[in-house]
Structures
1.
Amino acid sequence: MAEAPKPPAASRAGMKKELPERFRDYKDVWVFIEVERGRVHPVSWELMGEGRKLADKLGCQLAAVVIGPKAETTKRAIKQTYHYGADVCYIVEHAALTDYRNEPYTQVLTNLVDTHKPEILLLGATPLGRDLAGSVATTLQTGLTADATELAIDDDMCLGATRPTFGGTLLCTIYSLNHRPQMATVRPRVMAMPTPDPSLSGRMVWDSFKMKEADIITKVLEFVSDNTSKDANLAYADIVVAGGMGLRNEGNLRLVRNLAQVLGGEWGCSRPVVQKGWATADRQIGQTGNTIRPRLYIAAGISGAIQHRVGVEGADLIVAINTDPNARIFDFAHLGVVADALTLLPALTEAFARRLG
Ligand code: FAD
């Protein structure tokens, strides 16, 4: 297997400048813990793992921010932040914070930042995190790197947030040299999940909620759960089987679905498959789709374009099936099979069904 291209080490040679004196007031790495309807989004813990590395490099504390109602679920989330390495947890609890609403959450988070001045603030690039990060960065008038794929501290102790650019053909490292905090969002599964340590504990810092419900424009009248949703849970699946344009037509996607089902995994696809209307967008894997980190990824009839590759590189084992021995996917697959997916997929399904069933 060929070496995956490494993003450049965070470096801003040639653009060095003295950092303003006021930046000295800013310290610590913060992670916003996304708690929605009592459930912590796993990306928050992935960010705690990454935040710990940044804090250790900076020689500062790692802090978690938990915002929500006064409830058992909030209490549980606070406790978990320590297990995932938080030295301190900033907490704001109020009934008005039960459901996510941009206005109160932005106010709470910007108030906390104004008071305690973190050097770095990280959020998950989820629908909630993206919404909140944008409004917090705008309110604080600071820079935000969206969808970062690598975070590193440079020689001047500045955050370099690396992300794909120009349609994924290049990687760029973005620095926030004139404003603090340095903000970034990171998509689920881009960073590895750390192992929690239940013996760890830390400090709690409480702050109050300063808005009045009457002043909040958005009202949550009712929460309607989409029970019928068949949304794919690709990001956190252990086994993923995906099909690309090599499958030739929509009907042949069932070969991918069948194998995924027999293996107890999820199925996905490349972007053109979605663009053809053969699958819904939640099945797409890659730069503009899901990032996955399964134990096993089987890619059938997928060429291995860079935009697909960046979404699957975290997989433990990548198996590629392609008729073209020169397909780019063989550059990064751990196991390559030069074969017709239309005959190999059903054969694998049958063999696994016999063995596992
Ligand atoms: P193709 O490139 O057409 O490859 C089909 C492959 O199937 C070929 O390698 C062929 O040899 C093989 N094949 C043919 N017949 C068989 C057979 N019978 N059995 C086995 N193999 C066979 N793409 C993504 O996937 N995800 C993204 O998130 C994404 N985001 C993008 C974002 C931007 C801004 C841009 C510009 C592009 C993006 N793309 C993305 C598109 C990407 O560049 C590629 O075009 C795409 O991944 C190719 O899809 P494919 O491999 O299915 O199709």
2.
Amino acid sequence: MHQRDRVEAATFAAKANINREQYEQLCAQAVQDPDGFWAGLAQRLHWYRFPTRIRDVSYDLRDFRIRWYEDGVLNASVNCLDRHLDSNGDKVALIFEPDDPDAPVQKLTYRELHARVCRLANALRNLGVGKGDRVTIYLPMIPEAVVAMLACARIGAVHSVVFGGFAPQSVADRIADCGSKLVITADEGLRGGRRIPLKANVDAALKLPGTHSVETVLVVRHTGAAVPMQMPRDRWFDAVVDGQPDSCEPAQMNAEDPLFILYTSGSTGKPKGVLHTTGGYLVWASYTHALVFDLKPEDVFWCTADIGWITGHSYVVYGPLANGCTQVIFEGVPNHPDVSRFWQVVDRHQVSIFYTAPTAIRALMREGDAPVRATSRTSLRLLGSVGEPINPEAWRWYFEVVGEGRCPIVDTWWQTETGGILISPIPGATDLKPGSATRPLPGIRPALVDATGTLLEGEAEGNLVLLDSWPGQMRTVYGDHQRFIDTYFKTYPGMYFTGDGCRRDADGDYWITGRVDDVINVSGHRIGTAEVESALVAHPAVAEAAVVGVPHPVKGQGIYAYVTLVAGEQETEELRQALVAQVRQMIGPIATPDVIQWAPALPKTRSGKIMRRILRKIAEDAPEQLGDTSTLADPSVVDALLRGRPR
Ligand code: 6R9
């Protein structure tokens, strides 16, 4: 990147919480006095017992452990609610913007949110949910979703939020994996005027094997649709919550007690239950939210992520509420009722910090500048991006059209596994570069390695690793600690492997290039190729399937599937549609294949391994980049696939 492409931090710096010098001091302190630095971060929170053992980490496989603040005792909901009541009880915590812009906006103060959380927490306790029990939350983006998460945290139950776009099979898999005792759902969700049959999906999920652990289903009445209730399993949320006391004794949790499980896709067919613990996660969510977003007491923060993703956990629920911030939660979509919706909501609620995904930016950019210019957006002072690399063109549009050149953009790199942001500009302290997540946060030690694990110095491109732990790091894969170690710590001994490729430029700034494993990033959502493949081969007509990601102008990556049929089956349009429907029905609409190409055979090595590198190039229609095909068992397969590309 050239000098002229830098956007200087200077204009924002005058009002920023920290300047470049202070940022550099923090980075230096984290190196010189790590215990002092990390203990200092913990002071952001309320502890029943402040930790004396700050950090105990070893990535050495013979003696592997990750523990932070391990003798500390706290409660996450107390930090997000009770702590603010005396000074800020009447401050608005949540502004709920419904899908339908004409439906009433709801505002909940910290005091009201606290009361709602306590009522549900009491109800959950009465239903026999206690410390360590798992609760699955399958809700739309409504206030009850936030209430449900915090109510679990209050009593020490471990929540597992499942995105409302997932199909019954995916819901069932996630319930079965963690053995949830209780499910919280709604009659229906609303997205862009469409109804999402959440309760019906739960009913279908609970008919599937492995879900017998569920004793109770709480159903929020949201759209008012008539849904069958199966007694005594199903209970109306209102009915169990009404009349409960609006205070509730919080469970005292050890810092290393689990706070939540969140499933994410990896390179095998089975999603991983990423487990985060209470103390370190909350410290990191709260610290990064305040630091990266230059948070001030008068800000109105809006993160558009759904709570079904980690971004919704850290930057809708735990970070903003731990910081006592006012924020918008939005049930709808960017293009309903029209493509000005995001900016209308910004104006309506005077949003000052706006955080979204590149896919949304690109989709709106295609609609031109007019729908943006039709709104004022003068309340905005800072913009954020997360979920996938943001291409410089989209960055510039976001900066110049949405932010009118006034608002820095924080391009925040992180993962479900990292709990919070690890690499990002600090507004006012870091010069911005369109397309680069720039620098690590204080205390974070990224590095690049080549395929053999050798550390690369200076300007380089390689695989992104982290040399040391941070408090928000995941602690295990639920129920499969060996998988945690194998996935993240075996590839490069002594380091955490992110699964991302990355370039570091001559200034030392980081440019994430995308996943280097079998994970596709569709609109910022991680989808394992193996998950889509197993949904395809579950169809009786399919013999074999191979799925790769292809560049997509809006979604970042699209899903391209090669399908080989069993002998005698016909390659028809009906079958193609049936296969698309099969994937949607088994995983959910987010995994919808963009292209299904019939493949008489797949390119395989002599040992039978599918060569995805070649399939990616065929999907991109880049035969000149195919590279060496001589190791293929049958090189003629490649020509057949190139000729067979659907147009
Ligand atoms: C927070 C979140 C993680 C993967 C990650 C990377 C990609 C996220 C990014 C980014 C480039 C950014 N990613 N933020 N790539 N620039 N600012 O998205 O978590 O759903 O687990 O996805 O997303 O590939 O490894 P998660």
3.
Amino acid sequence: MIVILTGAGISAESGLATFRDLGGIWSQVRLEEVATPEAFRADPERVQAFYNARRAQAAQATPNAAHVALGHLQAALDDDLLLVTQNVDDLHERGGAKAVHMHGSLFSALCGECGAREPWQGELGNGERCAACGLETLRPDVVWFGEMPYHMERIEAALQKAELFVSIGTSGQVYPAAGFAALARDCGADTLELNLEATGGAFDRVETGRATEIVPLWVQKTLGRQVSD
Ligand code: APR
């Protein structure tokens, strides 16, 4: 089994900002003001506006060659591949892959009252009502700092039986994702980082470069055949 973890770097060449690169999202706005439950309680309009802007940008973006290559890999490997993403955009899906969104998705709304989820396009925070309970309590279905990431049991079970763990486009700064390479390696997996720069994580091998170049090449090597864009 191969487990792949992706981060914002895989969507950078689709025009979506990363968080910690020069000029990244967290250099433009303080995460404490837009990405915590406390921030949402204090100023819901501000938080909704932040995610409305990111949802609009993500909707305008197109999957790049790295997303498409992972779609081909998943089509070939099926259940022998688990693709986990920290990203809340839908470019993996639009690139042909099914991804496990451990930080949620901009394209899902969560009811803060009854916990119901519903697919969502467009803006939130203008009086929309939850389809299940009817209250005006819909928030972005994204995991804020201080909240529990989604699907962790499934992810940890996969890491424990993986032969290979591949980290793509993530700085490895945020736990629990930052601990996945070490966990996989402790359980016997080989670990590979495909990233613009080495992050110093628990990787046996590191290939540096832009995702649109190094990910399709790696997928081709893994499949032993060309993967078209
Ligand atoms: N190709 C490959 N890697 C790239 C590219 C690119 N074109 N551009 C940037 N990168 C790399 C950077 O070198 C960096 O290591 O992608 C990584 C992006 O790191 P971050 O901006 O920290 O994003 P990420 O690791 O996904 O952040 C993790 O932090 O704020 C939270 O919830 C948020 O999911 C996010 C989490």
4.
Amino acid sequence: HADVAMYRAKQAGRNNFRFYKAEMNELAMYRLRMESDLRNAIESQEFVLYYQPQMDLKSGRISGVEALLRWQHPRPGLVHPAEFIGVAEEIGLIVPIGAWVLEQACTQAAAWQRAGCPPLQMAINLSARQFAQKDLVSSIDAALRRSGLAASQLEIEITESLMMTDVEQAAATLNELKRLGVRLSVDDFGTGYSSLYYLKRFPIDKLKIDRSFVRDIGSDPDSEAIVGAIISLAHSLGLSVVAEGVERHEQLAYLARCGCDSMQGYLFSAPLESEAMERMLRGLPPSKAAGERGKMAGAGQM
Ligand code: C2E
Ligand code: MG
Ligand code: MG
Ligand code: MG
């Protein structure tokens, strides 16, 4: 991993300049390799979407899924976004990759619907570079038309930092998206340059409480207070709330007590391949260890 190599390089420090240099070379090679592999990945159809369900806490039903990108690299196998999204963003490749995600997610949601699965919200993550594209709104509109998915079934996840870079521009883009009819949610809520200002200024529908707060439910009263406050704030503003990274019953119980609308996390299901996701939508038992966390995946874990 690049960060690990960098860390080791730093640790090596001055006393061991040759070691440092070797590590730097290795890091540079790794980076070059990744860039060129990434450039081929779309054409070679190496990207796949996994889907993680969000469960509505009142009905117990799946209200939506989040599409999460995976790179099926021929050598190291499945690569997770943390390892390549940053690089893709830096070299601008995130724009065509994001366009692929949008198309694929809309097509999949429409296909599930046509196949008789219950209707759901399909959420996709948007990167800063994508958000800044002039044709963002028209490309989303086009993807919806091509797939036949209703705009109200597409949810766009944006981060706080993405909105705060250029507030005027962000407001204009978000208003246009809203006019199109798509839903807007704030991802990793509470971890960015949190400004409550934008909740008033922007047409947001939903907040996703960051995993770092959810993780500490049961051990840190401050995190619990923050989670509770986010839920009340969201509800007073007419927004819905989903908690990310729910792994334990204790967290679920606390969230339910606070009136949280839905939850997403390994407790309910890991991200799943499309076939496994479809089985779950149909209420069928998982066919094999389909999820990324094997035994943790699949309904019936509740
Ligand atoms: P995110 O949007 O906040 O997605 C949630 C992440 O938490 C996912 O990681 C998911 O697999 C993980 N997760 C879900 N439940 C649990 C849990 O109970 N415990 C723990 N520890 N983790 C859980 P993933 O798939 O590795 O994605 C990481 C980030 O990469 C995402 O964070 C998102 O910011 C970005 N990303 C993923 N797909 C895309 C994409 O298509 N486009 C863009 N621009 N970014 C993406
Ligand atoms: Mg997300
Ligand atoms: Mg998130
Ligand atoms: Mg996150």
